[in-house]
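If you are new to this repository, start here. Below is one unmodified record pulled from the training split, so you can see the exact layout before writing a loader.
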Amino acid sequence: MTTIQKGKTNNVGTKFWEICDDAQAVITEFNHNRFPHILSGVEVYFMDLDFDPRLCENVQVAADVDEEIRVATPGAGIESTAEEMLRDYVMRALLHALDKQGSSRTKYLGQLRDKMIAVRSNAVSKGSKVTVAILTANGIA
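And here is the target side for that same chain:
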């Protein structure tokens, strides 16, 4: 599983934007043309998929990722290993959604939300936190 980091975007006036830490130090850069919906100064999660050592290839708005995790997580919570697995899955799904447009994209994002609801329902029915076993049973592995 690829490490997911968090930072804030910074528009530097070119198509390559920076992602900075809390001290404003540059962590990485990304091609903003690939992620035009992301605004400057927004918190993002990012994964470097090692396609290009200079750039981060998966950048997602933290609020979008956190919302999907929230939908999947019942009041009992989520195990830390399961959270890492689920966050990785959501990040990759949101990246894949960028390749879709219109009703195809809407349908795909609806299916992602349905899967998050299924995870939550499964955990609630078992009276437990979200676990790796629950994620695996729901096709998230």
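Two things worth knowing about this chain: The chain has a mean pLDDT of 95. The beta strands are 4-10, 16-20, 26-31, 43-47, 58-61.
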